[in-house]
Design a protein that fits this description.
- With 330 residues, the protein is mostly helical.
- The protein has 2 domains: 211 residues, 3-Layer(aba) Sandwich (Rossmann fold); 89 residues, Orthogonal Bundle (Tyrosyl-Transfer RNA Synthetase), CATH 1.10.240.10.
- 55% of the residues lie in helices and 7% in strands.
- It has 13 helices and 5 strands.
- Strands 1-2-3 form a 3-stranded parallel beta sheet. The protein has a two-stranded parallel sheet with strand order 4-5.
- Strand 1, helix 1 and strand 2 form a beta-alpha-beta unit.
- The protein is globular.
- The two termini are 28 Å apart.
- The relative contact order is 0.15.
- The chain binds adenosine-5'-triphosphate and L-tryptophanamide.
- The site of L-tryptophanamide has 14 residues, from strand 1 and helix 7.
- Adenosine-5'-triphosphate (ATP) binds next to helix 1.
Amino acid sequence: MSERKIAYSAIQPSGVFTIGNYYGAVKNWVKLQQDFDCLFCVANLHAITVPQVAAELRKRTFESYALLLATGIDPETSLVYVQSQVPAHTELCWLLNCTTYMGELSRMTQYKDKSQRQGKNIRVGLFDYPVLMAADILLYQANIVPVGEDQKQHVELCRDIAERFNNTYAPTFTLPEPYFGLSGKKVKSLQDPTKKMSKSDSNLNAFVTLLDDRDTVIRKFKRAVTDSGSEIIYDEENKPGISNLIEIYSCTNDKTYLEIEKEFEGVGYGQFKLAVGESVADDLAKLQSRYNELLANKDYLEEQMKINAEKAQSIAIKTLRKARRRLGII
Ligand code: ATP
Ligand code: LTN
């Protein structure tokens, strides 16, 4: 790789990506390709920290890979690979498990939320999830990790783990920083704008996926929960519904909140929701046609997965060897 800084991120194939994933993370990845050496990963080993159906997971792994390429991630410029095809990840995860504290993992809010929702029979993997994520990042000596705001705590933990390892043994890992785009770092549910939009929400009207057709997108926005009052004003505390729609609209056209408020002065909620829906649908249309072409060409996808996984493994193994040596593992 060149002298450019390294950007690393990943996404779970736990469902079709939502506009939260897109505006919060993936759209930034596409832009970062111009200035960074980028690696992007379909994190299928992270997805099995909650129960999955094997055939579905296999299918969604392919679809997620194709979706990433359809958004504009170029497998010739960036490294785009599937996590399970690079065995170095799970091995470094084990080494890092032996320098991570139970207390640190117990404080992770994603673990607390997901384990609470699941109730009983919580997997050890769900608890260990942030250590595997740290291994992903540290293997490639990443400088920045472009993610949505919900992942900030995990990236900070990764940094703590790396720092402790470096101080205990010898400098081994680059300390990464989380990176957020100007807008979209926390897109909220359309049905409960106090919660984040999530691709595994049981209410299908709560999220818009990248593959929803135009009518579905517009229908979901028309049904979006709004607030009392009638003005289109950004006020997260008192108008979480309208603020979320303003945020989403700004992601489609880079307009500021102020510009959007001016554009919709005197306009009713209904008309505003329609405008947001249309703008998102326009954004998704091109991506969807590219996605369909890619998915029809399975051979191409398999070939890119293979080439990219080999390249990723050849970078990762260097860091892994270093970490093994530091620990005295023969
Ligand atoms: P799941 O619902 O299955 O837990 P998820 O929808 O939260 O998954 P991930 O695969 O965990 O998605 O996340 C991929 C990327 O998308 C991460 O960088 C994450 O921060 C970002 N992201 C996810 N949801 C949102 C959101 N609502 N707003 C902004 N960014 C988001
Ligand atoms: N936990 C992340 C997905 C993920 C990730 C990573 C993100 C797995 N490994 C490495 C950045 C860097 C999530 O978005 N839920």
